[in-house]
Design a protein that fits this description.
Layout: E1 6-11, H1 18-31, E2 36-40, H2 47-53, E3 57-58, E4 61-63, H3 109-114, E5 130-132, H4 134-140, E6 144-147, H5 163-172, E7 176-182, H6 190-197, H7 207-211, E8 215-219, H8 223-231, H9 241-246, H10 251-279, E9 291-296, H11 302-314, E10 320-327, H12 337-349, E11 353-358, H13 362-372, E12 377-381, H14 396-403, E13 409-413, H15 434-457, H16 464-482, H17 484-502, H18 514-563, H19 568-578, E14 583-588, E15 597-602, E16 615-618, E17 623-628, H20 637-699, H21 707-739, E18 747-749, H22 751-758, E19 767-770, E20 778-780, H23 782-799, E21 806-813, E22 816-822, H24 855-865, E23 869-874, E24 880-887
Parallel strand pairs: 1-7, 1-8, 2-3, 2-6, 6-7, 9-10, 9-12, 10-11, 12-13, 19-21
Antiparallel strand pairs: 4-5, 14-15, 14-17, 16-17, 18-20, 21-22, 22-24, 23-24
Amino acid sequence: MGRGTLRIYLGAAPGVGKTYAMLSEAHRRVERGTDCVVAFVNHHGRPRTEALLHGLEQVRRSEITNGPDRSTGSGAAPSAGTGPDRSTGSEAPHSTGTGSPHSTGTGSADSARSGAAPSTGAGPAHSARSEMDVDAVLERAPAVALVDELAHTNLPGARNAKRWQDVEELLRAGIDVISTVNIQHLESLGDVVESITGVRQQETVPDEVVRRADQIELVDMSPQALRRRLAHGNICRPDELDAALSNYFRPGNLTALRELALLWTADRADEYLQKYRGEHGIRTTWQARERIVVGLTGGPEGRTLIRRASRMAAKGSGSEILAVYIARSDGLTAASPKELAVQRTLVEDVGGTFHHVIGDDVPAALLEFARGVNATQIVLGSSRRKTWQYIYGPGVGATVARESGPDLDVHIVTHGEVAKGRGLPIARGARLGRARIISGWLVGVVGPVLLSLLLRSLESGPGLANDVLLFLFLTVAAALLGGLRPALASAAVGSMLLNYWFTPPTHTLTVQDPENFVAIVIFFAVAVAVSSVVDLAARRTHQAARLRAESEILSFLAGSVLRGETALDALLERVRETFAMESVALLERTSDVDPWTCAGSVGPAPVARPDDADVDMPVGDNMALALSGRVLPAEDRRVLGAFAAQAAVVLDRQRLVWEAEQARRLAEGNRIRTALLAAVSHDLRTPLAGIKAAVSSLRSDDVAWSEEDEAELLAGIEDGADRLDHLVGNLLDMSRLQTGTVTPLIREIDLDEVVPMALGGVPEGSVELDIPETLPMVAVDPGLLERVVANVVENAVKYGPAGERIAVAASALGERVELRVTDRGRGVPDEAKERIFEPFQRYGDAPRGAGVGLGLAVSRGFAEAMGGTLDAEDTPGGGLTMVLTLTAAPGRPRGEAALPAEATS
């Protein structure tokens, strides 16, 4: 049985009508006699959607009863709490619920305050605790199954973790599936959607799953129409309407999401178009969208061309920039590796892509590439040739413009290097192309014949001396164009023609006058000498160019060593570009009998063994650099050897860096474990011993305790339990920081809403609070900020002098807000200010406190997780000031509603 087909209705935002369109399609198919069933669809309480479910067969659902209730409903926007995200819904723009009872798809005031898309109705009573029954659908084996909300996360205990995995099973069973998904749930767009809406999507589906769909249909609606639907009550309940319109469903958000959906769908359509053109061999340009190809030579003018193409692309939305360098296949490429690297970076900075193509005929290769990518425009630079160099041909720009045809626009851009000369080619040197060699033979062999016919047609010739000079000119021209061999042939042919036509007796190969014989001999000698000199100069030019290319490459490699560059892929890519190869791989093995493994590769289809490569360069006994594409001349292997040695060094450096990082982590872990053992053996046992003693005393039958004594013992138990809770909490927080699992729930809030709550653990009247009302809001996680302030203030109270109040003051500095906690204690020396923030570190004695030295370490970790800093300064007049720096909310004055949460902690 073949694989089923997948059709996806892609929505720009919640409520645009994806499910409605899917159900309408199902009714059309049923009317045509197709066996179509509903595997899982949520109508979210929308009457028109619910009505479309009537008349369609619905497969039974799987009831999930085991495990904690972690569902918030597919369409709900749960409360914005501080706990971990446990939402399973994918219809709502985001979910940051805590799994509380009110977060089951019925909506709440919390969801409205959070700025999320509102819940969309309670739906069926069983929807919060049921999932699609994959086995039931497979047993029913319909032709088409409707599966709503492809990005949905299944409840714990379900067959698969994600609904798209359920869909994959149905497709493998040969069942066609119709599904829905919103653009904000595509995994690659998570950061983009968050930057637009301020909401971090918790429900995502891999892009590749959607891209593999056989059909993708965009369900679009203008922002104004969608907001009208919302206002009419077609999407959410009336009590959630105001919050939805003023937060997620703002016109700007909807417009940006709509553009994302349109562009993503256009890219998918472009992939299909390229596939169709390839399958049908279509080479003409279809100008569906602007694609600008920039032809690079590796010269300094390339930067100007890239910037010019970027300005052209900016004029039209959706334009693409593709920079291409055409390398010849005759040794080292004729470009500076350093300049090409700079231009590659510039192309990527302006949002384009860099391509490396091999081709001896540069204009043909450039046009072939442009037509292959369905380009609409080509940007080339004005020729750097001097005027006399045009004798070799019209140049790349003129040839491309002449042969581009009506579908490709060619732009010739002026630059500062115009007509300054191309200089010595870095790699090709004076090697002659096929066109020049053919031209040399034509001038050297056919030219003398044509010249003879021309001179014979004249009634009175210019004389033998002038005839010799004219033939000598053709010989020199043949040497300049085609090299030594055409020049020698020209000398031989010219000598014979001079003897036969212009030296008495004519029409014979004999020479009557000795002076004429000497003239012919001198002509031949001069022609051979000139040809030899021209050829020798060309060889010396080629050698100089090669040495120049090698020295530049070796200098670049030496510079990369000194700079400590450790990107193996970048080095291998430079090898591929330098030698115009298709792929490059660095292979290694542990011994002579072990198989080869690939340590790094670039290019398509890298070889797996050195024996399979066109060129291999051994590096030691068990490593080799393998290149495929063509065979390199022997003179290139010296430079290749330098690249291979550098690649081995880079690989070793990467592994040493990784091993050093692992060693550092192990050492840090050992240090923390040692300190933890010490803390457990002392700091945790002390409150346990107090609790144990108090409990034993209370349970003792030998002593009759008074009410005051019992109250004192119970207070001691409570105090010891609080100390244990505080110590264990700090240990868990430090563990989360060490493992990198702290993700802050960022929202905009006033400091005076958080700081007073953090002072509950200190004695009343021990803190003096000064937070101005004009202070801007801060972008923080309220829960983490409360922990940071509580730890810092408690530390200040612990180390401050008895009876001295701790000052907590806030102020705004540009885009930052500073909270300063000042005590009048003995302070901390400068050399110890950083050590107090390390785990399990306590400066001096704390006779009135206890702990394992984690409070400040946890506080700094939480502050940095929120994008802030925590530092220690001296208090003027004595003492220590803790400075907590936070990010001010941009353009958010006090009193405005907070944005919805971005993440969950």
